[in-house]
Specification:
The chain is mainly α. It is 55% helix and 0% strand.
Length: 136
């Protein structure tokens, strides 16, 4: 991979380990690349993932949803856990600090609602492409 911060060897090691264990680990390397650039820019001399670095990385961006933030935090948290398993110092963000992502609750249409949807659909008339272009 093309990492260049002080954490580069550990990022490569984590990715290799995940893939050897059978994980696809497809989009996580891109997130780690962004974290690598973040560390090079803001913490160029730091060789330990500190609480300060993690909390700075965990700052929610203005247009970021809780799910996107969690997806951005998880690979970096995994990196810190990997570094700690190697016996090195790294701050591992506690799970409770990560935002809870609300579970999707599907809306189930009632039989009456479905009946009304299909009744309205049956009332629609089909326009050919030519008719549509003329009306537009």
């Amino acid at each position: 991979m093309d990492f260049s911060s002080a954490f580069a060897p550990h990022m490569n090691g984590l990715i290799e380990q995940k893939r050897v264990l059978g994980y696809k680990y497809g989009c996580e390397p891109a997130i780690l690349r962004r974290f690598d650039a973040f560390c090079r820019e803001r913490y160029p001399t730091e060789s330990v993932i500190t609480q300060e670095i993690m909390m700075d990385w965990a700052t929610k961006r203005p247009s970021e949803s809780p799910a996107t933030l969690q997806n951005r935090l998880t690979p970096v948290r995994e990196l810190a856990k990997y570094i700690a398993r190697l016996g090195l110092e790294a701050y591992i963000m506690p799970k409770g600090l990560m935002p809870r992502v609300p579970r999707y609750i599907p809306y189930i249409y009632s039989n009456d609602e479905l009946k009304r949807i299909f009744e309205q659909t049956d009332k629609c008339c089909e326009l050919s492409r030519k008719q549509f272009l003329i009306k537009s």
